[in-house]
């Protein structure tokens, strides 16, 4: 247990929370990434939205917004929820490390590593409220560690068992992808208990955990359905339809086993990318391997730098998992099963769902860092805190966090508006590629042709039909004297999503360029709102 005084027991985590909150508040960006625009409009409309994958997330944000009287405004309310959630989770993690007898300095450095990890940095200083689950995850892990230590010492740990289950159930209602972590924790603790007391006693001892998880989880589901019916914000006639409809909607998003050969590499890359900012390593590597990258020499320095960073983080992860698996099997010390349950639970969902969204990977951050420190290997600690931490601090902040925070959204939107003109046509993509992009800029009154949306929703991957529609829109814009600018779709060095997905669905860049070059004069790149674009003119 902690060697700190009772007063230090809460003052130190409070200082950690304050430091993280200030840092993340300073890194907040005006960019509305991913689902932020949807949350913004939902809160502006003062309406609940019930999504089973994140059941209580938006409704809880709505209740907090109403409870504060909207004094911060919609965007700042959402940002405050996210920033405070990260700060609270980091404070709990600091307390977890201190109770596990790690020093103040090591615990603080570990929290810094967590806070600077790429996916937390990508989501935290924004109005993207998926990190509302972060404190629940941290608390579930915190009490799981206490429970595991008590079990190993033969002491009563029922209170922490119940607390871990309750926080896990709350987490599941905020982000359903955390459910496998709670289930694996129960399995591991059952095995640990059975080895000491026999299977019958172990099952009996685990009943409070199972009952709490089910009761809190189902209770919150039932409360969500009741609230949805009372506020007339769901078309579901009964609880079963409410639940199954939400499950079906989330299942339609998964890609799962797209390729048996590609999946392990994709999983490994996504896990590394959770910690390190690798803006184009995965996409450029795949484009090069598939022969879509005309000249790799132009991007070789960037590829080599990102590959070196990936090797640094990937090596740390591999060493941790190898040593951690060996120590867990040997049962050398308590405090390994809990982080392993959370790591493998996150892996189970991420491998199944197979999407590289940050919200599906940040669940690895706390348990991985905890696992490294619980192995008590000085060389692993040095690798994590002495090498990886300063490198990620520089790369993630200088390459992503600070530029995103300083992004002059209003000025860039005005510049893009001026570059296109009132009669112009924007040709590009709607999906967010993971960093500042012209697709995030609001250009009211300017026509847009989003290739990815048209391909997916309108032409059903019929490349001929898509190109015909694109020609019609371009010809109409040129006929009215408008300027036509193409963003990212003709840039040979840019293979970030959804460029790759569009190519795999039947429209590779070479085909698009050949088609446009046959009909129009292509010039550029030119600067448009701070982004490179190619201009199309009539022949």
Record keyword descriptors for this entry.
539 residues; mainly alpha; five-stranded mixed β-sheet; 65% helix; globular; membrane; transmembrane helix; Glycosyltransferase RgtA/B/C/D-like domain-containing protein
Question: SSE layout and pairings?
Answer:
Layout: H1 6-26, H2 36-44, H3 57-67, H4 73-99, H5 104-116, H6 118-123, H7 134-153, H8 158-174, H9 179-197, H10 199-230, H11 239-251, H12 262-275, H13 281-289, H14 300-330, H15 337-353, H16 365-374, H17 378-405, H18 409-420, E1 425-428, E2 447-450, H19 451-458, H20 463-479, E3 484-487, H21 499-504, H22 509-519, E4 520-528, E5 531-538
Parallel strand pairs: 1-2, 1-3
Antiparallel strand pairs: 3-5, 4-5
Protein described:
The chain crosses the membrane at residues 12-31, 43-65, 77-97, 104-121, 166-194, 206-228, 303-324, 336-354, 383-402. Keywords: Membrane, Transmembrane, Transmembrane helix. It comes from Pelomonas dachongensis. This is Glycosyltransferase RgtA/B/C/D-like domain-containing protein. This protein is mainly α and 539 residues long. 65% of the residues lie in helices and 5% in strands. The chain has 22 helices and 5 strands. It has helices at residues 6-26, 36-44, 57-67, 73-99, 104-116, 118-123, 134-153, 158-174, 179-197, 199-230, 239-251, 262-275, 281-289, 300-330, 337-353, 365-374, 378-405, 409-420, 451-458, 463-479, 499-504, 509-519, and strands at residues 425-428, 447-450, 484-487, 520-528, 531-538. A 5-stranded mixed beta sheet has the order 2-1-3-5-4. Strand 4 (520-528) and strand 5 form a beta hairpin. The longest helix has 32 residues, at 199-230. The radius of gyration is 25 Å and the shape is globular.
């Amino acid at each position: 247990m902690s060697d700190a005084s009772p007063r230090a027991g809460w003052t130190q985590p409070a200082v950690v929370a304050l430091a993280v909150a200030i840092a993340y508040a300073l890194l907040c960006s005006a960019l509305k990434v991913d689902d932020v625009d949807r949350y913004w409009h939902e809160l502006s409309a003062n309406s609940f939205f019930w999504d089973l994958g994140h059941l209580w997330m938006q409704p809880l944000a709505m209740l907090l917004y109403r409870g504060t009287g909207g004094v911060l405004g919609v965007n700042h309310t959402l940002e405050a929820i996210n920033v405070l959630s990260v700060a609270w989770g980091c404070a709990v993690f600091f307390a977890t490390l201190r109770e596990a007898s790690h020093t103040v300095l090591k615990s603080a450095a570990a929290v810094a590593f967590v806070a600077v990890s790429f996916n937390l940095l990508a989501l935290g200083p924004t109005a993207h409220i998926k990190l509302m689950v972060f404190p629940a995850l941290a608390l579930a892990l915190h009490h799981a560690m206490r429970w595991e230590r008590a079990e190993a010492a033969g002491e009563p740990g029922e209170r922490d068992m119940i607390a871990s289950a309750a926080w896990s159930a709350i987490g599941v209602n905020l982000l359903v992808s955390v459910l496998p972590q709670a289930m694996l924790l129960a399995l591991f603790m059952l095995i640990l208990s059975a080895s000491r007391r026999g299977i019958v006693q172990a099952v009996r001892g685990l009943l409070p955990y199972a009952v709490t998880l089910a009761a809190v989880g189902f209770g919150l589901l039932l409360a969500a359905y009741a609230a949805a019916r009372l506020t007339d914000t769901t078309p579901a006639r009964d609880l079963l339809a409410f639940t199954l409809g939400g499950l079906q909607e989330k299942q339609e998003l998964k890609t799962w086993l797209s390729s048996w050969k590609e999946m392990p590499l994709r999983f490994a890359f996504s896990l590394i990318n959770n910690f390190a900012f690798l803006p184009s390593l995965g996409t450029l590597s795949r484009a090069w391997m598939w022969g879509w990258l005309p000249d790799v020499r132009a991007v070789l320095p960037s590829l080599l730098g990102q590959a070196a960073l990936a090797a640094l983080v990937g090596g740390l992860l591999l060493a941790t998992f190898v040593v951690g698996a060996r120590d867990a099997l040997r049962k050398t010390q308590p405090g390994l099963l809990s982080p392993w349950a959370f790591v493998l639970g996150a892996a189970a969902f991420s491998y199944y769902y197979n999407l590289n969204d940050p919200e599906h990977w940040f669940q690895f951050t706390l348990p991985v860092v905890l696992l490294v420190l619980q192995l008590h290997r000085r060389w692993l600690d040095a690798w994590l805190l002495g090498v990886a931490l300063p490198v990620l601090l520089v790369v993630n902040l200088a390459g992503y966090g600070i530029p995103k925070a300083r992004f002059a959204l209003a000025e860039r939107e005005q510049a893009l508006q001026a570059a296109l003109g009132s009669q112009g046509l924007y040709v590009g993509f709607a999906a967010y590629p993971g960093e500042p992009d012209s697709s995030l800029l609001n250009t009211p009154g300017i026509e847009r042709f989003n290739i990815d949306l048209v391909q997916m929703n309108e032409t059903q991957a019929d490349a001929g039909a898509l190109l015909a529609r694109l020609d019609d829109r371009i010809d109409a814009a040129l006929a009215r004297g408008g300027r036509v600018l193409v963003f990212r779709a003709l840039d040979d060095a840019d293979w970030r999503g959804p460029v790759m997905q569009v190519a795999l669905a039947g429209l590779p860049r070479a085909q698009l360029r050949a088609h446009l070059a046959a009909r129009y004069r292509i010039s550029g790149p030119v600067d448009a709102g701070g982004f490179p674009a190619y201009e199309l003119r009539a022949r």
